[in-house]
């Protein structure tokens, strides 16, 4: 049955008037998502000193565009996303900054209102779909729950729309598959289910946290392609979190590179790849294997990322940076170094000139 | 599913054979001469009379032959006749409803209170409520339940007079409430602890984040996602508990004078009334096996990841 054409809910249609417009700060002209000066800390406990895990993340994603947030484990990219979604792990808390969804600051909203936005105007896809789906509930019901939670439809219709969503993300026999449990799907199909769930109400912003890391390379390409085409169809803004610059390359319009809890460089993807203006970005790019470099050893970045409980002071990359000098003890601000190109490095000119 | 159930039923056959054999052997090995008990404590038994009694109850035949006769009867639903010429089945018919009521009531209390406290402790983990529940459950476990039962009997039954002291004259539920509560004290801490551990484990599962990211409220996340997963081990434990409760009521039935199966079995042992002991034990074993089977089937219903066959 229901592979019938799926009526896309309008953002401000009469059927489900979104609550976004009524919230303080709403500005239809604002960027769909803008994060500024975000700081997240784990307060000190008896066994552990205080740790700044995100110390000033700043980026914005334009309407209908893809922003990739790139960084290694511990760079604070996932925690930034979790802070935006209100999903910080136990103990972590936001100490400063804002995360505005069309001008509405998500971090300052009362819980009830923040909840009404989650799943409807901003949604998230997680890395490990097997863990992120409830193992004992059929996937159709898990998708239908989005409609139920936001009071859009009755039980029956919610399920039908869930089936339609499954069809939309390319799951064959969606009416049958909707009754299946997560463990009965392959990894790629599970991630499609996650995407169907996240896009059920056509949010403005989709955060995808390492959506393809757990998948085979061929399936990776399919999922990235699916995300891209759904993004284009619905005019979503996509925040793609990844540790892999090559995954990001074909998908992102802009790239923000995070290191030690802050954004160290942000630029249009082509520009960033062609003229990195931060030594960390350059080091990352040098470590990517490419054609024509066969037989030469890959550049490896020595050292380890900073311990958030004991930041080096000044530029977080200083201890591993080949260009570091005395003035790097003063933290470099994120500054414009070219058209639409931001970098937090005192030596950005030097880096891009190489 | 049907095949699985059938196979499980077939598997119960050797279990029934084995357990009945053990029970039968145990009763056979009881010290004392059943003939003396049959005739009465102070009466001299003439050899002729003893012979007649032995022949009547087949006590003169070898052990395995006796057992064979018993099994043959059992297969036809006949639990035999006890040494007072009463069919064991009529004793069972009298005691069964009492024990079932007591066990079920205890079980419901255990499930509701245990799961409730367990969830509460998990949600408030590390805070005063949690410590109170954990500490309280340790305390309850440390006190033997027959002491609690006697105290409850004296205080609630005798001093305050809120409930009958003993017997089932006032019927269900009044006569059963205090015994059921005392018996439930034994299981509540276990259920609460298992529930707490299981809820804590699922509270930080990633699918909980997914539910929050959907915009689901706290209650919906807790009930629809956390509990739905946490109750899987709890349900299987509760199922097995029901089986043990059926046979675990002996002491409480004794204290509160409830004429249930346990009470009858106890009397049977005291009177060397073999058929009663064997009959009731067999019935309890069968009940236990049946409940186990139901729990197994239920397990598949609540946890779709489990495959049969």
Automatic annotation (TrEMBL), chain A:
It comes from the Bacteria. Pfam families: ABC_tran, oligo_HPY. Keywords: ATP-binding, Cell membrane, Membrane, Nucleotide-binding, Transport. Belongs to the ABC transporter superfamily. CDD domains: ABC_NikE_OppD_transporters (cd03257). It is found in: Cell membrane. It comes from Streptomyces triticagri. Residues 1-28, 294-313 are annotated as: Disordered. GO terms for cellular component: plasma membrane. Its main location: membrane. This is ABC transporter ATP-binding protein. InterPro entries: AAA+_ATPase (IPR003593), ABC_Ni/Peptide_Import (IPR050388), ABC_transporter-like_ATP-bd (IPR003439), ABC_transporter-like_CS (IPR017871), Oligopep_ABC_C (IPR013563), P-loop_NTPase (IPR027417). One of its GO terms (molecular function) is ATP hydrolysis activity.
Automatic annotation (TrEMBL), chain B:
GO terms for cellular component: plasma membrane. The keyword Transmembrane applies. The chain crosses the membrane at residues 9-30, 104-124, 131-156, 176-194, 230-256, 276-302. It comes from Streptomyces triticagri. Residues 96-295 form the ABC transmembrane type-1 domain. The keyword Transmembrane helix applies. Keywords: Cell membrane, Membrane, Transmembrane, Transmembrane helix, Transport. It comes from the Bacteria. One of its GO terms (biological process) is transmembrane transport. CDD domains: TM_PBP2. This is ABC transporter permease.
